[in-house]
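Hi all, posting the design record for the shared folder.

TITLE: backbone redesign
STEP: 1 of 1
STRUCTURE INPUT:
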């Protein structure tokens, strides 16, 4: 686990500094204009989830659909930027039509932290350069989904299971800190 991740989790969830969490959620991310410039210059459409006082910002970035005969594929990139700590995560996705007559689902899809297309790779390079130059650390899939063994959800919360991950704690308000008085 990154020292940044470990330190922030201890500060908020072990030492109980929920004011820090709440204050960070109110802050704005100072690199947004540069990120929007990258998306605009790349001529990509996107959906942004930038909820007021949320612990993270999320983008679903869409590429033009690729069609070669019967082959049709759609690519997406998901970008998450934590407001709680200088951390970010990028996930690439694809979806293809399932032409199998015996298919159980109309599409085949998948995700990875590695790009599936050159367009995804080029966009990732630009975003990573921007964020790393701004002091952010890129989390891998494993780091994002790392379970924090000394923390768990309250006993009355069983929707997600008992274990909490880095994503739960630093990219979501899964413990309802923002709802506390």
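Okay, here is what came back for every position:
SEQUENCE:
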């Amino acid at each position: 686990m990154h020292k940044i991740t470990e330190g922030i989790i201890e500060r908020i969830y072990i030492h109980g500094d929920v004011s820090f969490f709440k204050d960070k959620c109110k802050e704005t991310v100072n690199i947004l204009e540069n990120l929007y410039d990258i998306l605009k210059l790349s001529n990509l459409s996107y959906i942004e989830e930038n909820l007021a006082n949320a612990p993270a910002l999320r983008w679903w970035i869409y590429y033009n659909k690729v069609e070669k005969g019967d082959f049709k594929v759609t690519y997406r990139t998901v970008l998450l930027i934590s407001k709680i700590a200088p951390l970010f995560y990028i996930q690439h996705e694809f979806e293809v039509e399932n032409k199998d007559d015996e298919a159980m689902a109309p599409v085949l899809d998948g995700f990875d932290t590695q790009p599936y297309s050159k367009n995804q790779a080029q966009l990732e390079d630009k975003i990573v350069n921007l964020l790393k130059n701004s002091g952010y650390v890129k989390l891998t899939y494993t780091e994002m989904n790392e379970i924090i063994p000394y923390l768990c959800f309250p006993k009355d919360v069983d929707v997600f299971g008992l274990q909490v991950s880095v994503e739960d704690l630093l990219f979501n308000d899964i413990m309802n800190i923002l709802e506390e008085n």
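COMMENT: The first helix runs from residue 3 to 14.
Let me know if anyone wants the other runs.
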